[in-house]
Predict the structure.
Amino acid sequence: MFASANYLANPRNQNGTNSVIASEGVPIGPQFANSLTNSVTDSYVVQVGDSFRLPGTWDKPKLRGLRGRVAFNWEGIPSHDLIGKSDGYRQPGYIMSIAPGFTYASGRNLLIAEVPIVFSRYINAGKSAVEGPGQSSNGTLTAAPFNPATNFGLVPAVAISLRCVRTF
């Protein structure tokens, strides 16, 4: 069995690049003034799983280092940074996935291959909304309706993860 957890705390506030809010080219209301550049966000990853021998491999020298594995992954971006300001545009939320795969160890080398399959997604719609065509009664632009198809960034439903580790 294995488990790991990482939290990347980045004290930098914004990265200076234009956000999707700035690139839309439409007049913005004051509620979006702080979202013209992208935020440098904190992020976290938690992984828990098991690695197990595959039947029929331990008596074959070339397959002795082959193991099956299955992992539960939870990764995301918080709404507010742990250290420093949290200005700028961000899409806070998380994804959860199950990742079947295998490891192969040979000498000081380790190959890890897995296919994380996303089964749960959440995004904070209020923090990631972009301006829409509607206007409120006082004339300011309102946020576009939250659309999971476009507001989840570039997180694929299924991916392939390959990692190589060499110990010295």
Remarks:
- Residues 2-166 form one domain.
- The chain has one domain: 2-166.
- The chain has a mean pLDDT of 82.
